[in-house]
Design a protein that fits this description.
- The chain is an all-alpha fold.
- The protein is built from two helices and no strands.
- The radius of gyration is 15 Å and the shape is elongated.
Length: 65
């Protein structure tokens, strides 16, 4: 996967997490929906964190060479 695609995926995941946060803030949300949206948001953030960790690993590998 190219660096540009990874960055776009990271940016997309953060954007999606922010959209989900906006939904959670809505006063019209039900408890059931809020739990579902929260889980989805956490999955997006975990995925984004994995991309960051991978980028950090690659940076460290390049720095050590």
């Amino acid at each position: 996967m190219s660096e540009e695609v990874k960055e776009l995926n990271f940016e997309h995941k953060i954007e999606e997490a922010n959209k989900l946060l906006d939904k959670l803030i809505s006063p019209d949300i039900t408890l059931s929906d809020s739990v579902s949206i929260y889980k989805e948001g956490m999955e997006e953030l975990e995925s984004a964190q994995k991309l960051l960790d991978e980028a950090k690993f690659q940076f460290e590998e390049l720095s050590n060479n």
